[in-house]
Structure formats: structure tokens, C-alpha cells
Amino acid sequence: MSDNLYAYGVTPDDGSLAVDATGVDGSEDVSTVSHGPLAAVVSPVDDMDPERTDENVRAHDDVLRAVMVDAERTVVPMQFGMVFKGKRPLKNILRTGRPTFSRSLNDIDGTYELGVKLVAEEGATVDREAVAERVDERLAPVSVGTVENDLFSDRLVVNSSYLVERDEREAFDEAIDDIDEAYDALTLQYTGPWAPYNFVDVAIEAK
User: Fold this and answer.
1) Matching InterPro entries, A to Z (predicted)?
2) DSSP run (H or E) holding 116
3) Chain mean position to CA 55
4) Measured distance CA(55)–CA(131) in Å, rounded
5) Interval 7-12 mean pLDDT
């Protein structure tokens, strides 16, 4: 059996972590590797370069979501495809990156990311600036951070990511319902929870 470990993210080492999710390449053995106050969420893989299939990307996200939602753990996510040759190099990453990981975990403590898009119907005339302002006014009070993403389509009016505290999720959902009801000519796309990729800046190289 391979010693290679696929890493999903870093979380505080608060004891045993039960993750009810299938990992990358179909792994049913999601566990943690600890060093000091930090733990990396991992599963075994054979390949150092796992294929970026839709199934694997979904599995990566599912494991992170299980950590955040089911286990109620804060997690700094790693990008897809981070594989380490055993526990030792991974523990070295946790050791050398401890200040950065700890700072990021503190910044996003008790939160996850939610995505909000508003898409205009074909041929609809929309005051983009007014809509974006109203959406932000409604969602800012029930979130702790916002990132405006690229408007990659002419019909895309709003494309934002929000950092939301777990305890504010219900209030955020209610605000989303209000926005959905306010615009007949716009289609709401509300996604998540996601790991807070847009709110952490941690560069890691697999080994």
C-alpha cells in the first residue's frame, strides 16, 4: 500500500476527527496527521498526481465541507492535487507553516464561504450598479467578508463570495431569499458552503 497522502486542508488539532465523506480516488480512509496545534486532513492515494476529474474535484470539496459543517471545524483549504510522500514531509509543512496557518485559522475561525451570483435574463435591462449595491447592503450585515469575483459574462450582474459565520447562516439564507424575491428579471445562483479559498492566502508546495 502506498504511503502517499493526499492533503485537503489544515485544521486545529482538537482531537479525533470523524469525516463521513469519500475522498479523492475513492478513498474511504479520511484521517488527520498532527504536528503541534495543527492537523492536516488527509487520505491515502497511489498516484502523486491524481487526475483532476469532476468526481475527484467533488470529493475534495465534499471532504472539506464535512470537516466544516459536520465536524464544525475551521479549515484552511489546500488546492486540489496536494500529495505528500508520507507523514514526515507533511509534518514539516505544518511545522514551518505554523505561524501562517495559525494566523489564517484565526482570521476565518468559525466561518465558511458562500457564493452568490445574479444572472440577467436574455435581453433584460438591468442597473448593475444599483443591484450590486442593494445586494451588498443586504448581505454585508450577515457576513464578515466579501470578495467580488470576475463578471465573466455580459449577463452576470453579481458574482461575489461571502465569508459567513456558522451562527449567521440562517440569517444569511433569509437575506438571500429577500434578494431572490426582489428581482424578477434575475436568476439567483446560491452555492456552498465552500472552504474559504477566497479569504486565505497560503502557498504550499507538495513533496
Assistant:
1) GvpL/GvpF
2) strand 111-120
3) 17
4) 35
5) 94
Residue 186 is given by DSSP the state E
Tell me what pLDDT residue 126 has.
86
Alpha helices, H only, 16-117: 54-65, 87-96, 98-107
Do 9 and 93 fall into the same domain? yes
| Average pLDDT score over residue span 23-47 | 91
Count structural domains, the chain. Answer: 2
Task: Please say which residue of 108, 125, 160 terminates a domain.
Answer: 108
pLDDT in tens, 111-126: 999 999 999 988 788 8
pLDDT of residue 152: 86
What is d(CA 8, CA 11) in angstroms, rounded to the nearest whole number? 10
| In a domain? residue 204 | no
Supply the CATH number for residue 175's domain.
Answer: 3.30.70.260
**Residue 44: which domain range?**
5-108
pLDDT single digits (tens) 79-101: 999 999 989 999 999 999 999 99
- The answer to whether residues 144 and 97 belong to one domain is no
Residue 68 lies in a domain: yes
- According to the model, what pLDDT value does residue 203 have? 62
- The answer to whether the peptide bond before residue 89 is cis (omega within 30 degrees of 0) is no
* Same domain assignment for residues 101 and 14: yes
Q: Look at residue 203 and tell me if it is in a domain.
A: no
Stated pTM of the model: 0.87
**Residue at grid coordinates 498516484:** 47
